[in-house]
Write a structure and sequence with these properties.
Blueprint (H helix, E strand, L loop, with lengths): L6 E5 L6 H11 L4 E2 L3 E2 L14 E2 L2 H10 L2 E8 L2 E6 H10 L2 E4 L2 H11 L3 E7 L3 H11 L4 H15 L7 E4 L3 H17 L1
Parallel strand pairs: 1-7, 1-8, 2-7, 3-4, 8-9
Antiparallel strand pairs: 3-6, 5-6
Helix pairs in contact: 1-7, 5-6
Bound molecules: guanosine-5'-monophosphate.
Length: 189
């Protein structure tokens, strides 16, 4: 069984419970490392530089692009860049599988690059209405950014069938179990 150099990608519209599921996946597979992306968006309350993201200026991000520091990157929202760092994935992959949390285009790029060594999972809310409700309850968004995130979510849902697996997050514990099962069988492959 080879678990190094295997990449698990979780993709989900913002507010789909992905962060919680990602944390539980990391807890369940202690050898797995989270690849911390770089982003130009400002930290949310409670987010720590180097833990949740490497928070960088747009200038720094562009420098990283020029240096070839990214496996993939996207302008996920206007003026908001996010990218997977080669060095993060390389270091993490030396000792175990790697977990990525990226949006759809990033996930498709990782799949294209890593093929069978990548498992790309799409976690979706039961409906856009449920997603809107969850995002409102989370309270991290303004009405405008909420609208942007919902529009993006509607687009992202259209990509779901290109993923290796789709998990509907109707109930967090059930969705987590399903995700853990998928990851386990991928790692044992
Ligand atoms: P958030 O601002 O909610 O943390 O993230 C917004 C979106 O950016 C999420 O869908 C998240 O998965 C995605 N994202 C985070 N890091 C990366 C990355 O390195 N590359 C890509 N393509 N998307 C990312």
């Amino acid at each position: 069984m080879r678990t190094t150099n295997k990449i698990v990608v979780l993709t989900a519209p913002s507010g789909s419970g992905k962060t919680t599921i990602a944390r539980r996946v990391l807890d369940a597979f202690p050898g797995m490392h989270f690849s911390v992306s770089a982003t130009t968006r400002p930290p949310r309350p409670g987010e720590v530089d180097g833990v949740h993201y490497h928070f960088v200026s747009e200038e720094e991000f562009r420098r990283l692009i020029d240096e070839g520091a990214f496996i993939e990157y996207e302008e996920v929202y206007p003026g908001r860049f996010y990218g997977t760092l080669v060095r993060e994935v390389r270091e993490a992959a030396r000792t175990g599988p790697v977990l990525l949390d990226v949006e759809v285009k990033g996930a498709m790029n990782v799949k294209r690059l890593f093929g069978d060594d990548a498992l790309v999972i799409f976690i979706r809310p039961p409906s856009l209405a449920v997603l809107a409700e969850r995002l409102r309850r989370r309270g991290t968004e303004t009405e405008a950014s909420l609208r942007t995130r919902l529009e993006r979510a509607a687009q992202e849902l259209e990509y779901a069938d290109r993923f290796d697996a789709v998990v509907v997050n109707d109930e967090l514990d059930r969705a987590t179990e399903e995700t853990l099962r998928l990851v386990r069988s991928f790692l044992e492959r």
